[in-house]
Amino acid sequence: MSSVFTKIISGEIPSHRVYEDDSTFAFLDINPRREGHTLVVPKRQVDYLFDLPEEDYTALWASCATVASALRAATGCRRVVVLVIGYEIAHAHVHLIPTNDLGDVPFPPVDAAAAGRLAETAERIRAAVA
User: Fold this and answer.
1) Domains recognised in the chain with CATH numbers
2) How many whole angstroms separate alpha carbon 84 and alpha carbon 87?
3) Fewest C-beta atoms under 10 Å: which of 2, 31, 35, 123?
4) Is the pTM of this model over 0.90?
5) 10: part of which helix (H) or strand (E)?
6) 32 φ/ψ angles, rounded to the nearest 5 degrees
């Protein structure tokens, strides 16, 4: 089944496109967190970012860099932050949000329990990488 992003890419659903190439499509988020909030998506519909084929993954991040540079120029922001949440729509996508300071974006609070288990967590991750 086509995702809402696949329908946007095909033109079935209108969007405010800001960039497109052979592999990616970038458009303004209809629920912006800040002016210029842009979504960059691969044209290939894959649910999970890290399941993208290497060429699509590489193309996605190259497009993110292109669009982020344009966002800085267009909005005058200090930085463009990147959020990859991946639960809202079953189509990999990257949020690019123009910001001027840390207060411009939501950031989860510190997890004190997780902070108390750093050594144990690091050990589990190292084992999984190996």
Assistant:
1) 4-129 (3.30.428.10)
2) 9
3) 31
4) yes
5) helix 4-10
6) -65, 140
pLDDT digits (tens, 9 = 90+) for 108-125: 888 999 999 999 999 999
Amino acid at 50: F
- For the stretch 40-71, pLDDT in tens is 999 999 999 999 999 999 999 999 999 999 99
Rg over alpha carbons for the chain, rounded to the nearest Å, is 17
Q: Give the active site residues.
A: 93
Question: How far are the Cα atoms of 2, 73, 76, 89, 122 from residue 86, in angstroms, in the given order?
Answer: 16, 27, 28, 7, 24
Q: Are 16 and 51 in contact (CB under 8 A)?
A: no
Judge whether residue 106 has pLDDT over 80: no
